[in-house]
Write a structure and sequence with these properties.
With about 130 residues, the protein is an alpha+beta fold. It has 1 helix and 8 strands, in the order H-E-E-E-E-E-E-E-E. A 5-stranded antiparallel beta sheet has the order 2-1-3-4-5, with no helix packed on it.
Length: about 130
């Protein structure tokens, strides 16, 4: 392969691989035990199960609470916030995610449509 072609192809292929990995992770939070995350504080009966890396309101409109990840099991994260008797489970794969684009770092996911913590609309995960 010619050197000039290789100079163009290698970075292009690298970008394509990074893009594919990002698309596969769309709407998914990769959490680890001990991390802090903001979650819906409404309780297990609330269907939104909104999670975010930033403080704000969940898609159901209520204020989110800071919680600590106590356990991660496949697509579930168990978190405990101050005042809770025991950890609550939240799916780490959202049906909706913040639609503000790659420059946004709020990392909001939800099981319901609505507004993201940064004020943008949530979009359906494809």
């Amino acid at each position: 392969m010619k050197r000039s072609l290789r100079i163009v192809l290698v970075p292009l292929l690298s970008l394509m691989m990074v893009g594919a990995a990002f698309a596969a992770a769309a709407g998914k939070m990769d959490l680890k035990v001990g991390e802090e995350v903001y979650v819906c504080n409404c309780g297990p009966s609330c269907p939104c199960h909104t999670m975010s890396m930033k403080e704000g309101n969940c898609t159901c409109g209520n204020k989110m609470v800071k919680a600590k990840v106590t356990k991660v099991d496949k697509d579930m994260a168990y978190v405990k916030a101050e005042g809770w008797d025991k950890p609550r489970g939240f799916t780490t794969q959202g049906k909706y995610m913040c639609a503000c684009g790659p420059s946004c770092n709020c990392g909001t996911i939800s099981q319901n449509p609505g507004k993201c913590v940064c004020g943008n609309d949530m979009k359906a995960v494809k």
